[in-house]
Write a structure and sequence with these properties.
The complex is a heterotrimer.
Chain A lengths: L5 H11 L8 H27 L6 H19 L3 H23 L4 H21 L1 H4 L12 E3 L8 E3 L4 H22 L2 H11 L1 H6 L4 H27 L9 H14 L4 H24 L7 H15 L16 H12 L6
Antiparallel strand pairs in A: 1-2
Helix pairs in contact in A: 2-7, 2-8, 2-10, 2-11, 2-12, 3-4, 3-5, 3-10, 4-10, 7-10, 8-10, 11-12, 11-13
Chain B lengths: L1 H29 L6 H19 L3 H24 L7 H23 L18 E5 L2 E4 H23 L1 H11 L1 H6 L4 H27 L6 H16 L4 H21 L5 H15 L14
Helix pairs in contact in B: 1-5, 1-6, 1-8, 1-9, 1-10, 2-3, 2-4, 2-8, 2-9, 3-8, 5-6, 5-8, 6-8, 9-10, 9-11, 10-11
Chain C lengths: L7 E10 L2 E11 L4 E5 L6 H8 L7 E6 L12 E2 L5 H6 L2 E3 L12 H8 L8 H6 L2 H21 L14 H13 L5 E5 L7 H16 L3 E5 L3 H7 L2 E6 L2 E6 L1 H5 L2 H8 L7
Parallel strand pairs in C: 3-8, 3-9, 6-7, 7-8
Antiparallel strand pairs in C: 1-2, 1-4, 4-5, 9-10
The chains are: A mainly alpha, B mainly alpha, C alpha/beta.
Chain lengths: 342, 295, 270
């Protein structure tokens, strides 16, 4: 099948999916969860995938976004239109604040600082009971309501059940996907890849390494916060346990499985690991093992991929910008002149 | 009770130092943050308990055996996971280290269960729990003295190995320049294996000491202790062995004072805050040199 | 007729690494529109000079001044570039290649050159996200310019192949194309002929002259003396971090200090 039909077909299936008979609440819930993790994996991918920086505290930004959204709704009943940008900006801001002093240093330090940051976020959420109710968790978050009453007083739509969240999640996924694809195939994205490949050579091409790393960290953190924002308004309950290191690890594992720097791979990785998690949740108790033992599998996946398939299970078939019309035209010209393109 | 806090902090600090040395030595020779080191520490403690309960061995023998096994585990980790990636980008090795850490932690959970278990008290020599000295209201138990004695003798041993043996010289050479050491006839892989063995056995000792001191051990104990020891290594200056010792002690005391005077809720937060602050304001640590991005 | 101002003036530069003096009082001028060579035995400090000029190192002492070419739009008579970061230096018109080739090896040949266009283009985050018209137009010009330079070095057929798949000589040419894509006034080539066979070296000779014809001044480090003597108009000879000779190749060849540096004490008197 020609490649160009793939995306519309995928979209069509996604749109019809919730209306199918077997798509009960459980199935829709899992698929929506997959979409949340796809967004998270794409957000994380910016750092290790595009820039070659290991971020071990990605879940911290997810948590910042989730709690920003949750607290704003619980305490102030802020509308969706303000809440989403506020949560995303809050996440991105923390990324920049944390990145500015550390991104000048070696990448190892960056990994550690992000780890420490995420741990501090969890400690803060656990201990600042006056704000977050601590380990008891934050209940009573309102479901999403799309308020268009400024256009027509009757246009207020309250979300109920899994179906509308599925569509909202799909919209978020599409937005992040398109953004990531565009960033990857741009001057900005190429600068990131240059940094990943060789910092000195990148600087010798005029790339301001420090600035581009900070931009990357800000974007990655912002995407994490966006997913957190959706998560808060979807599950309607937050607790600090949801944002522990395990989550960062799981998301990193998704990116590694799909191939570092590969947007499609990150999404496939998310789908596989969430599905695997659901399966293991049933299988492990039958083997008499605790549910956490699934991380044994994830740990092994990571070791094996790095050892035997460092480009992931879905190595990038096409270079960045394969879909770019300018590159397609160039390829056609080259083939016409009998050049080797590969 | 400032003095008591200081003594308790110091006890904890020397143990952190013992773990931190493992991080710093491995970083020195292969520039890798060996995230799995915290897990070796945890496994060391569990092995010691297993030797006591399953084989009925005495405490000291079990501890020595655990050290030996941990050394083997450390070397195996390097052989299986890190060695094949020596020529790969650093990101790949770092990710492998994380994967290894999570794998080992969950393996321990499957083998020994996920709940914390107490240290078998019968096996611990009874005098260790008695107070050795009471000095103007400060209690010092024999166990604490034992911890100090063990730690300082291990540090002394380490100092001698690093500075006065051929292997130590090779380790230092490797830290300077791997290719060059290789050309000079240093068997690089043997030196790396030795470093892992040394660091891992010291980690195992620390695990046993902590398990006895707190009378509890769990598969997740390596996670927090690992981060703290790493913070100690960074505080002292990563790659510097005396720095790791100093960093451990400073961190242990800071933590005890922070828990005592600021808020016990943020006890673990002290290590993270120190870690971030040191990296931001003094990345070279107390005794090390800065790792500015090598362009 | 007054002599033209030097494009680059290296003025009494010192560089110390800990206790080691890598460069001692090195001065020379690079005149526009010429090919000049920087030679000397291994460890003489040649690459250290390159690193000081391009901002990888900051000289311990001394000045490096660039007279910006009229095309750069700056009107200042000369700009101090010592202490500036590499990305700023390349924007001012000094590009380089590396002794041990440094390509973005898992990217395509075209992408390597496209990244070279970075300092001459400006689209940013917002432009990329919204695919603004200005961004799309810029992308098209980036590809055109990149293809132009790939044609210039003869690699346009391989534009969409991974850079790592190129032969060694082609990788060197790609690195030159990437450097040229930054539109430099001065191009620093670090041992461009290293590892090349005689035919590739001959091609390189032609390529360097073609670069000169594009109006780019060239300074090269090279050990291939035949090539150096043939194409350079002016030579700077370094030994142990000091400039021991400076002049046209014919004069350099018989300079006893140079012979001694290369062949050892006594050889000059033999």
């Amino acid at each position: 099948m020609p490649k160009k039909f793939l995306l519309p077909l995928f979209l069509a299936v996604a749109l019809v999916f919730p209306l199918l008979p077997f798509a009960n609440d459980y199935v829709l819930h899992v698929v929506t969860l997959v979409m949340v993790y796809m967004v998270l994996a794409m957000g994380l991918n910016v750092l290790p995938g595009f820039c070659g920086l290991l971020d071990l505290g990605f879940v911290g930004f997810y948590g910042v976004g989730a709690y920003t959204a949750g607290l704003l709704t619980v305490h102030y009943g802020v509308s969706l239109w303000i809440m989403v940008p506020a949560a995303v900006l809050n996440g991105a801001l923390w990324g920049v604040v944390l990145g500015a002093p550390t991104l000048r240093l070696s990448g190892d330090y960056f990994a550690i600082v992000t780890f420490g940051f995420a741990e501090l976020v969890v400690l803060f959420l656990t201990n600042e009971i006056w704000l977050t109710r601590g380990p008891l968790g934050l209940p009573g978050i309102d479901p999403v309501s799309v308020d268009l009453s400024f256009l027509n007083p009757a246009w207020i739509y309250e979300f109920e059940g899994e179906r509308p969240y599925f569509y909202l999640g799909l919209a978020m996924l599409a937005l992040v996907y398109v953004t990531m694809r565009r960033l990857e195939d741009s001057r900005l994205g190429r600068a990131w890849l240059a940094i990943r490949e060789d910092q000195l050579a990148a600087a010798s091409c005029g790339v301001n390494i420090y600035a581009y790393k900070i931009i990357a960290f800000g974007i990655s953190a912002g995407v994490g916060a966006l997913a957190g924002c959706f998560f808060a308004r979807w599950t309607l309950f937050l607790s600090p346990d949801m944002f522990k290191f395990w989550e960062s690890f799981l998301i990193l594992c998704m990116v590694v499985l799909g191939g570092l720097g590969n947007i499609h791979g990150a999404m496939v990785g998310a789908a596989i690991l969430i599905a695997l998690g659901e399966v293991l949740r049933v299988v492990l108790p039958q083997l008499g093992l605790p549910n956490e033992a699934r991380f044994l599998v994830y740990g092994l996946i990571m070791i094996f991929i790095m050892r035997f398939k460092p480009k992931g299970f879905f190595p990038k078939i096409a270079a960045a910008g394969e879909a770019n019309p300018l590159i397609k035209r160039l390829r056609a010209q080259l083939e016409q002149h009998g050049g080797t393109s590969r | 009770m400032l003095e008591q806090q200081l003594v308790n902090g110091l006890t904890l600090g020397v143990i952190y130092a013992l773990i931190a040395v493992g991080y710093t030595m491995v970083y020195g020779v292969i520039e890798l943050i060996n995230f799995a080191h915290g897990e070796v520490y945890m496994i060391g403690a569990f092995l010691c308990v297993t030797f006591i309960t399953a084989l009925g061995l005495p405490f000291y023998v079990s501890m020595l055996l655990a050290m030996g096994c941990a050394a083997g585990i450390g070397v195996t980790i390097d052989r299986v996971a890190y060695k094949p990636l020596r020529a790969s980008p650093r990101l790949a090795v770092l990710i492998t280290a994380i994967g290894m850490s999570i794998f080992l932690q969950n393996l321990a959970m499957i083998i020994w269960g996920s709940r914390p278990v107490p240290f078998p008290q019968d096996a611990v020599p009874a005098y260790l729990k008695e107070t050795a000295f009471t000095f103007s209201g400060v209690h010092l138990t024999w166990l604490q003295l034992f911890i100090f004695a063990v730690t300082f003798s291990m540090m002394l041993l380490l100092y001698v190995i690093i500075n006065h043996t051929r292997m130590g010289t090779a380790m230092r050479a490797l830290a300077q320049n791997r290719t060059c050491s290789q050309l000079m006839g240093v068997n690089v892989n043997r030196v790396i294996a030795f470093t892992f063995a040394l660091g891992s056995s010291m980690g195992a000792v620390a695990g046993v000491l902590v398990a006895v001191y707190y009378n509890t051990l769990s598969p997740t104990m390596g996670y927090v202790a690992g981060v703290k020891a790493f913070a100690a290594a960074v505080l002292g200056g990563i790659g510097s062995v005396p720095g790791a010792m100093l960093g451990g002690i400073v961190l242990g005391i800071a933590e005890a004072l922070g828990a005592g005077y600021v808020s016990s809720l943020y006890r673990d937060g002290v290590a993270y805050a120190v870690l971030i602050a040191v990296i931001i304001f003094r990345p070279s640590g107390l005794l090390g040199k800065a790792l500015v991005e090598k362009a | 007729m007054t002599a033209p101002a030097p494009l680059l003036k290296v003025d009494q530069v010192y560089k110390r690494f800990g206790g080691l003096m890598a460069l001692t009082d090195v001065s020379f001028d690079i005149m526009p529109g010429r090919i000049q060579g920087l030679i000397g035995p291994n460890g003489a400090g040649k690459t250290t000079i390159f690193n000081c000029i391009t901002g990888v190192y900051k000289p311990t002492q001394g000045e490096i001044l660039l007279t910006p070419p009229p095309a750069s739009g700056t009107t200042a008579e000369s700009i101090r570039i010592n202490g500036k970061k590499p990305d700023k230096v390349v924007a001012l018109g000094i590009a380089r290649t590396f002794q041990n080739i440094r390509l973005f090896s898992s990217l395509t040949v075209l992408d390597n050159v496209r990244i070279g266009r970075h300092c001459r283009t400006s689209s940013n985050l917002v432009g990329a996200m919204l695919r603004l018209g200005s961004q799309r137009r810029e992308e098209a010009t980036i590809i055109d310019a990149s293809m132009k330079w790939l044609k210039f070095v003869g690699l346009e057929r391989h534009a969409l192949a991974p850079a790592s798949s190129l032969s060694y000589g082609d990788q060197r040419r790609l690195e030159i194309a990437r450097a040229l894509a930054t539109e430099p006034a001065l191009l620093l080539l670090d041992e461009p002929a290293a590892g090349m066979n005689p035919r590739e070296t001959a091609d390189l000779d032609q390529l360097i002259h073609a670069i000169l014809d594009e109006g780019v001044t060239v300074l090269l480090i090279e050990h291939d003396m035949k090539l150096v003597m043939k194409i350079c108009e002016q030579l700077i000879v370094l030994d142990h971090g000091e400039r021991i000779a400076y002049g046209p190749p014919a004069a350099i060849k018989d300079d006893p200090k140079v012979v001694e540096a290369y062949l050892g004490r006594g050889a000059a008197h033999a």
